[in-house]
Amino acid sequence: MNVPISFTKASGAGNDFVLVNTITEDPGIDFGRFAVAVCDRHFGVGADGLLLLGKSDRADFTMRYYNADGSSGGMCGNGGRCIARFALMEGVAGLNQRFEALDHIYDAEVGEGSVRLHMKDPVDLRRGVVFTAGEKKLNGTFIDTGAPHVVIFESGLERLDVMEFGRAIRRDPRFNPAGTNVNFVRIRNGSTVELRTYERGVESETLACGTGSVASALVSSDLYTLTSPVAVAVRSGETLFVHFKKTGDGWTDVFLEGSAHMLFKGRLLYHEDQSIIRLTP
Predict the structure, then answer these.
(1) What is the DSSP letter of 14?
(2) So what's the pLDDT on residue 178?
(3) How far is 31 from 66, CA to CA, in rounded Å?
(4) Are 110 and 97 in contact (CB under 8 A)?
(5) Residue 168's closest CA among 141, 145, 137, 144?
(6) Distance CA 141, CA 190 (A)
(7) pTM (2 decimals)?
């Protein structure tokens, strides 16, 4: 059976998403399977993930996130910023809004050119975690910023094989069964860092990662005393800003700020039995 689905394509600093408003139109499908089909860059719309806007009894709306491989992701910072702009466009919420994701309430401020998202306080900081990737030993820091992240500082960022090293660390047995995202960071100057991220669920390097930017900024403040706000230059060429308050061995009042644009809208026919996407006028 062909299921018609309206969607919007969005980008948060280069992280791209397909968004569906299930409040106005719930197709009643397996969204994990749909995510695989619609995120395919050759046979679908193409995206790093799928975002679903839904009803909430506790906030303006809920956000559900699926990785491009169909798995349920953790919190997605750039996705949260994109869905905030989407909710404004759909008339679901105003400029200042609250939404529910993974049993946590997030606050978002939608501006003309950027969206600012109040993130969860990070947990589970683990310094000095040593990894072996190929013949190379890498020293990293683990932190959970709503999604699990390893942060590794690497001076040769341009030449680094992010796919090889990222894939090896992502599946490190210490992070089973969920795995981890992997961030490679270089301090540029002042409070600016450069970032390349291997994202689980996408299983590739992405042009940006919101929770990875937060993880990289906070670990940089911990190990290199960078102060808030930290500017994170991501692979897309854009810059995300991470604001925070350092509190002893932790952080609070963490905000992620940057661009979030709606790119285009469309309508497709989804053949659920065969996971086939067809665009329709």
Answers:
(1) T
(2) 87
(3) 8
(4) yes
(5) 137
(6) 21
(7) 0.94
Alpha helices (runs of H) in the chain, residue ranges in sequence order: 31-39, 77-89, 162-170, 210-224
Q: Structure tokens of 261?
A: 């644009």
Confidence (pLDDT) at 274: 67
Q: What is the CATH number of the domain that holds 25?
A: 3.10.310.10
- Model confidence over 70-101: pLDDT tens digits? 998 779 999 999 999 999 999 999 999 999 99
Are 270 and 247 found together in one domain?
no
Query: Taking Cα atoms as reference points, which of 191, 196, 225, 192 lies closest to residue 208?
Result: 196
Phi, psi dihedrals of residue 166, rounded to the nearest 5°:
-60, -45
CA-to-CA separations, 57 to 61, 82, 98, 103, 115, in angstroms, rounded = 8, 21, 11, 12, 23
DSSP state of 207: S
Count of the separate structural domains present in the chain = 2
What does residue 107 show for φ and ψ, rounded to 5 degrees? -105, 135
219 and 130, same structural domain?
yes
Tokens of 199: 């994202």
**Could you tell me which residues come within 8 angstroms of residue 281 by beta carbon, excluding any fewer than 6 positions away?**
267
Range of the domain at 153: 123-258
Active site residues: 76, 209
Q: How far is CA 45 from the centre of its chain?
A: 18
Give one word for 46, left, alpha or beta, with left for phi > 0 and alpha for psi -120 to 50. left
Residues 129 and 183 both lie in one domain = yes
pLDDT the model gives residue 1:
74
Which amino acid makes up residue 266?
G
**What spatial distance separates the first Cα and last Cα of the chain, rounded to whole Å?**
18
User: What residue ranges of the chain have pLDDT lower than 50?
Assistant: none
Locus of tokens 């065969």? 274
pLDDT at 135: 79
Whether 223 and 270 map to the same domain: the answer is no
